[in-house]
Design goal:
Blueprint lengths: L1 H14 L3 H14 L4 H13 L3 H12 L6 H13 L3 H14 L4 H13 L3 H14 L4 H13 L4 H15 L3 H13 L3 H14 L4 H14 L2 H12 L8 H12 L41
Helix pairs in contact: 1-2, 1-3, 2-3, 3-4, 4-5, 5-6, 6-7, 7-8, 8-9, 9-10, 9-11, 10-11, 11-12, 11-13, 12-13, 13-14, 14-15
Length: 296
């Protein structure tokens, strides 16, 4: 279509060292179609590629002021705001997107992530809950809401139910399996947690959160050698900033406990109260959210 062709043409001009020609072409198109948000989006892309982030932001601000601007334009504007360290403006545009495009999933997820990264877990949970109300059958919202509840020690029973619902639908996603395993951990269902997390590790052996959660689970089960192995591996991953302090505390406690009394650190397992996972369908029954592993 027109936009795709224009984008390819302008990209070629930029790559061949003719950004001014690309800008002139876009300006001419905008003079003809001033109420066409995708043209402003294209112009912003050219501006960003040529190092003019502030100009790109102004073009996208115009785009979102027009009727029928798609959700991804709001997302792009938020991204550019973040790139120039205007974080509050990024949050405001994401909130605006959730109001004007309530069924655009990415805005809810991005806003919840922003709130979590800003140290405001209550707002993160509230945002994810609002998004969940629009997408109750979505395993992405089920799993991410479960994760936020668990990380903040809230409604762990509900978190487990949400994580199970997500796990049943998406399978083969180690992040969702991680959330389910962590939900079992919070319910002291440690054998179940170890099984689910071990399956997740097979798919993502370098995932720091999964390694950390496995280490904590084995610690609670009294399997200290495994706990030390996994916690030590987890601390070497890029995600370590989120759990290194707790991992160090557990490792120190293990090292300071006489070997003949290590078993006293184990916590009673509640697994017998629950049914075991369906091993026969294991490959089909795994899932969890991804945004938390980013920085999340």
């Amino acid at each position: 279509d027109l936009i795709d062709a224009a984008f390819r043409y302008c990209s070629l001009l930029v790559k061949t060292g003719r950004p001014e020609t690309a800008s002139e072409f876009i300006a001419e198109q905008l003079s003809r179609k001033q109420n066409f948000p995708l043209l402003y989006y294209l112009a912003a892309g050219i501006a960003q590629k040529t190092g003019r982030a502030a100009s790109a932001a102004k073009l996208l601000e115009k785009a979102v002021s027009l009727e029928h601007a798609p959700g991804y334009i709001y997302m792009k504007l938020a991204e550019i705001y973040r790139s120039i360290h205007k974080y509050e403006k990024a949050a405001r545009i994401l909130k605006q997107c959730t109001r004007t495009k309530p069924y655009f999933q990415d805005a809810w997820l991005a806003l919840a992530k922003y709130n979590a990264d800003s140290g405001d877990p209550e707002s993160a949970i509230d945002t994810m809950q609002q998004g969940y109300e629009n997408f109750k059958d979505s395993p992405v919202f089920q799993s991410n809401l479960a994760w936020l509840l668990l990380e903040n020690g809230q409604q762990t029973d509900r978190a487990l139910s949400l994580a199970q619902a997500a796990y049943e639908k998406l399978g083969n996603n180690p992040a969702v399996a991680d959330t389910l395993g962590w939900a079992y951990f919070h319910q002291k269902i440690y054998s179940q947690a170890a099984w689910v997390l071990s399956e997740a590790e097979k798919q993502a052996p370098e995932n720091g959160f999964i390694l950390y959660h496995l280490g904590m689970t084995f610690y609670k089960k009294g399997q200290m050698d495994k706990a030390v192995t996994y916690l030590t591996k987890a601390k070497k991953t890029e995600s370590a900033q989120y759990f290194a302090e707790q991992a160090d505390r557990v490792l120190k406690k293990i090292s300071n406990t006489p070997e003949d009394t290590l078993e006293t650190l184990a916590v009673p397992d509640h697994d017998k109260m629950f049914s075991s996972p369906d091993i026969d369908n294991a490959e089909e029954d795994m899932l969890s959210p991804q945004w938390k592993h980013q920085s999340p």
